[in-house]
Amino acid sequence: MLYDVLVIGGGAAGMMAATKAARAGCSVVLLERNPFCGKKINITGKGRCNLTNTRTWDEFATHVHPSANFLRSAFYSFSNKDVVSFFEEAGLKTVVTQGGRIFPESMRAADVSQTLVKCMEEAGVEILCGREVLSVCKEGEVFRCNYIESESKMMASGSIMAQAVIVTTGGLSYPGTGSTGRGYDIAESFDIQLEPLFPSLTALMPWQYDPALKGIALENVGLTLVVDRTSVQIETGDLSFTDNGIEGSIGFRVSRRAVKALIAGQKVELELDLKPALSLEQLAARIKREMESMQIDAGRMGPVLMRQLLARLMPKALIAPFITANPGLTVNNLPSALKVWRFKIHSYTGYERAVVTAGGVSQKEVVAKTLCARNVPGLYFAGEVLDLDGDTGGYNLQIAFSTGSLAGESAAQKILKQRVSSE
Q: Can you name the residues that pair with 8 across neighbouring β-strands?
């Protein structure tokens, strides 16, 4: 059988692409390596799945890398409002939380993937799980996809013919969810250029990391990324210290540029500001007021009193590692120590725990208005396989939904036009 559209990859972008192409009237088949679709969706947002957010395009675009302009057409064709409508109409209620982030009302990521599977089934998509794609080639005007049944004891092989192929295989992040980088192999087999790959939204590990920091979470702090002694990015928000180093929303936000700099052999530092809302002078005045209320003066400030003072300025668990990092701490240098706590970064967590893969199919190789490869008619790319990624907060799933939707509709429109012209 010759299908109209073949979708390779059953993640967020793939399931959206398959649904949109099938709803347009095309015969669609989807191949997924795992025994079921949506495996990575099920672990996003700590199992809650941050679907998208309420940001306008101008706000949203500032959180997209390396160039948000490429996403513009896809976003406007299927915006964050459209994503909410899509799921609400499919029976999945959503809720807006702090910071404008949107989740399923149930706070269960599995409900999102199940809803997407239901939409595909209702649209008539043929879903073939447990199929690992080996190669894709073009034979005349149609594509041939060769695969093996990964769940079969006999490792049975097969092939599928289609007029259009949409590659939505994801990246290399979280390989336990089935991310193998197969989409990059497919792209290269068609001489499509890839931008260098590297993990993003990942933990950064400082030199001589104090184990006493592990498990501490901080709210409303500032973080500055310094590369080769130049400040290149400043963020404010939440930060956490884990076994893997510095994480949390602002840790993840600076990780993309930090990882690129480390790969390039540059010197990377993070400067933690525990009191970003206060200037150095305001902080000094605040410390003076705290000391007055404690009825102590700088002249008799010993280790015990310093700890008591710090307890008024930071979480108790942070006091010991803060003192360790700032030997010779006095009332005079305390304000600057609170404003600039330096961490020299020497490594980062790889793909095994990175949220997304940066890099991928070059934006130069794909038409932004259709997501079709410029030099391979009928071949489309969507989702994480593209050189397109976002910050934490629903940006990456929105990118997946928008690009998946546009690729599915574009492929369908091309095929339906051909069908009309041939009649």
A: 31, 167
